[in-house]
Write a structure and sequence with these properties.
Elements: E1 5-13, E2 16-23, E3 33-39, E4 46-53, E5 65-73, E6 76-83, E7 86-92, E8 100-107, E9 121-124, E10 130-134, E11 139-143, E12 157-159, E13 165-174, E14 177-184, E15 193-199, E16 207-213, E17 225-231, E18 238-245, E19 255-262
Antiparallel strand pairs: 1-2, 2-3, 3-4, 5-6, 6-7, 7-8, 9-10, 10-11, 11-12, 13-14, 14-15, 15-16, 17-18, 18-19
The structure holds beta-L-arabinofuranose.
Length: about 290
């Protein structure tokens, strides 16, 4: 994407691809706006504008608009976002809004009081049950109610066994396996990277599978993290959206959003992703 946008959540709704992002370039990640972009080919993206602006559109928070996610149910769109290290939710009748905030905090803290309650990711299982994943410092999952905005706090479970987990959980299911991605290190570090784990249950326990995306200084690609995975509907073609230090001249608060191909090997595990510069299409590796 052109400009400074981070924390991309990539999805497909009704034949169109969407990227939901935060706005970067502010000290202390103090931006206030979330944007949405659309595309028909995953290459050319149209800025569809700001869909939520803290303070103006959200009564309970003014700053730190951090990593969002989106989910659809019965024609309604649920936009989960971070604000002031808490999680809120806004709803709309279209993927591009207008979104109306619920007016209250959805998750105020991690159940064990550790870290920050940030980085929501919704995964909807094949049986229709949706789960909300989130966390920084510690990783959590809770099943969402049918309305997508309620949950029983007593059903929250901590996800253990993720090597070096920091934040940025994201979950997909493929061929019966739950694949969980997460960010390692600090987003301000050139070593911000993506860890990977698998399980046979959305609650875990997960088995760590190492790092699947990391910097490539030979290309000037640094700070590769906060990812989301997209399966092109009706195919087994996958893409990973993530942010990196903007090129040229970026750093941990000047980040840009990019996409690369993601592939699963014959063993069913995600292969390490090759980060590429814009306009360079990675060669397909035979399985
Ligand atoms: O962009 C603000 C925060 O930095 C996100 O919530 C984290 O995942 C990290 O990318």
């Amino acid at each position: 994407l052109p400009g400074l946008h981070a924390d991309p959540n990539i999805v497909a709704f009704g034949g169109t691809y969407y990227l939901y992002t935060t706005t970067d370039g502010f000290d202390g990640w103090s931006g206030t706006k979330f944007s949405v972009w659309s595309s028909n080919n995953l290459v050319d993206w149209t800025d569809r504008g700001v869909i939520l602006d803290l303070g103006k559109d959200v009564s309970w928070a003014e700053s730190r608009a951090w990593a969002p996610t989106i989910a659809e149910r019965d024609g309604k769109y649920f936009f989960y976002y971070c604000a002031e290290a808490k999680i809120g939710v806004a709803t709309a009748d279209s993927p591009t809004g207008p979104f109306t905030d619920s007016g209250k905090v959805l998750i105020a803290a991690n159940p064990d009081g550790s870290g920050q309650a940030i980085d929501p990711a919704v995964f909807t299982d094949d049986d229709g049950q949706a789960y909300l994943y989130w966390g920084n410092g510690s990783a959590w999952v809770v099943p969402l109610g049918e309305d997508m905005v309620s949950y029983e706090a007593s059903k929250a479970r901590q996800i253990k066994g993720l090597d070096d987990f920091r934040e940025g959980l994201f979950v997909v299911r493929r061929k019966g396996v739950y694949h969980l991605m997460y960010s390692i290190d600090d987003t301000g570090s050139t070593n911000y990277r993506v860890g990977y784990a698998t399980s046979d249950s959305p609650y875990g326990p997960f088995t760590s599978r190492g790092v699947v995306l990391k910097k490539d200084p030979s290309q000037g690609i640094l700070g590769t993290g906060h990812n989301s995975l997209l399966r092109v509907p009706g195919t087994d073609d996958w893409y990973i959206a993530y942010h990196r230090f903007a090129i040229p001249g970026g750093d941990g608060t000047h980040r840009e959003t990019t996409i690369d191909r993601a592939e699963f090997g014959r063993d069913g595990l995600l292969r390490p992703v090759t980060p590429t510069l814009s306009g360079v299409r990675p060669r397909r590796i035979p399985r």
